[in-house]
Write a structure and sequence with these properties.
Elements lengths: L6 H15 L4 E5 L11 E7 L2 E6 L5 H14 L3 H5 L4 E6 L7 E5 L5 E6 L2 E6 L13 H10 L4 E5 L5 H8 L4 E5 L3 H13 L7 E4 L7 H6 L3 E6 L4 E2 L3 E2 H15 E11 L6 H11 L3 E6 L16 E7 L1
Helix pairs in contact: 4-5, 8-9
């Protein structure tokens, strides 16, 4: 149960982290990691340009919202808020239909260009649950940027192409993005253009993966394959059932010595799900390491948090 008496800690943590962010997008409070009693269903993201976006994931008692609003109004009078150039505070109700968003302070832009690790991404605000960039994958994108030089990259379930942007910035020779949502790929194209990338190095395939292996293989073999699927996508993907179909194809897709970054973001699926299935279905791919998650995404149980595992084709 979310507790109004816990909110001073919420604003204390945010105050400490905002100073470190500068104008870069960052999670500044992560209650969903269950490290803060009474705040398990609330998060806060600093988007830069003076915008703080709070999200509530489960309906709380009316007293909680009253206290949250009152303490937001007090917070925006603080020296920290003035120091970081704060302008806008919104609350997104992720548990309500349409992910209703209300603006408590200032004016919320419908779109905003945010900066992460010096790269720019366009986000939509107040329209849908996911704004276009998953902040817990910050270190994953950095890893791809650091390991992409001269490589041919396949980005499966590309969404808005954050991995692709990082790869091209890191010197990738070619990136192929596949996602069945053409609107997400269009945003991915915009993200590349925002970073002045050479678009001849980037391809966008708006297809359902399991009907498109021929198109995917045509651009291979790849030196790096990134698999970052949704846990569940009605009618097209169920993680626990369909991940295996991808792993079986890896020997055909990945060049010898190539890398695979396999991701799972379901709290109910353990890292062993990936290591065991890889050993069974693609034994030539050896587990190298699990990437760290950003420290701001603290979690009482690391197995419940985002899992990003690196494998190498031996």
């Amino acid at each position: 149960m979310m507790s109004p008496s816990a909110l001073p800690q919420f604003f204390s943590v945010i105050s400490n982290r905002l100073i470190e962010c500068g104008d870069e997008v960052r999670r500044v409070f992560h209650g969903r990691g269950r490290c803060y009693d009474g705040l398990e269903q609330i998060t806060a993201d600093w988007l830069g340009q003076g915008v703080l976006q709070i999200a509530v994931f489960k309906e709380a008692e009316p007293a909680f919202y009253i206290a949250l609003n009152e303490q937001v109004q007090a917070f925006v009078q603080s020296d920290v808020w003035k120091q970081v150039g704060g302008k806008t505070v919104s609350v997104q109700h992720r548990d309500r239909e349409g992910a209703e968003t209300e603006t408590l302070v200032g004016e919320m832009p419908m779109q905003i260009n945010v900066v992460e690790n010096t790269l720019t991404y366009k986000l939509d605000l107040g329209k849908r649950q996911n704004n276009g960039l998953f902040l817990d994958m910050r270190l994953g994108r950095q890893w791809v940027k650091d390991h992409a030089q001269g490589k041919r990259v396949l980005n499966l379930f590309a969404y808005t192409c954050g991995f692709s942007v990082a790869a091209i910035e890191g010197g990738a020779e070619k990136v192929v993005n596949l996602d069945m949502a053409k609107s997400s790929l269009s945003r991915g194209r915009e993200n590349h253009q925002l970073n002045q990338h050479d678009m001849s190095k980037v391809s966008f395939l708006g297809h359902e993966l399991f009907k498109s292996w021929g198109k995917v293989k045509k651009f291979g073999p790849y030196d790096l394959v990134i698999i970052d699927p949704p846990s569940f996508q009605k009618g097209s993907f169920v993680l626990t059932k369909d991940y295996a179909k991808i792993l079986r194809k890896l020997p055909e897709l990945v060049a010898e010595g190539g890398d695979v970054l396999a991701c799972v973001n379901s709290p109910d699926v353990l890292p062993s799900f990936l290591t065991e299935q890889m050993a069974e279905l693609a034994p030539a791919f050896l587990f190298e390491s699990r990437l760290e998650n950003p420290p701001e995404f603290e979690d009482i149980d690391t197995d419940s948090a985002l899992k990003v595992l690196h494998f190498k084709h031996s």
